[in-house]
Write a structure and sequence with these properties.
elongated; 2 domains; 129 residues
Length: 129
Amino acid sequence: KLKCQIAEYEQELRELNEKYFEVLSNIEKQTQSSSRVDQLIDNETQTDDQQHDKLIQVNSKLKRALQTIKEKIHHVVIERPELFVDSADDTIERLDHLISVIEQQTVQMKILQTEHDHMLIDFFFRYSY
């Protein structure tokens, strides 16, 4: 469940990051064409203001998403401190540590599943004849 939530937050962060860089790219494109007629400059200024407002919105969403992730990690640290014995207080380091633990557990689960499958096969071969 936690791994799924983290994956969802990571996906949301990626999407917001893409939007952020798209808006930033649009602003840069508009800024490069500053040698236009005065009327066009006024229009660009309005567009820049709109783009700036969009950047502020995207930035706010990113901050909220990051704060949510930070709170979730803090909650896990409080609920399961044994998972973070070797981890520092830094949220990113805790997230990295948590992802590492999840990856290790996934590998361990696959190993156990393989061992279980082999035991079942051995059992059926021994007792089916």
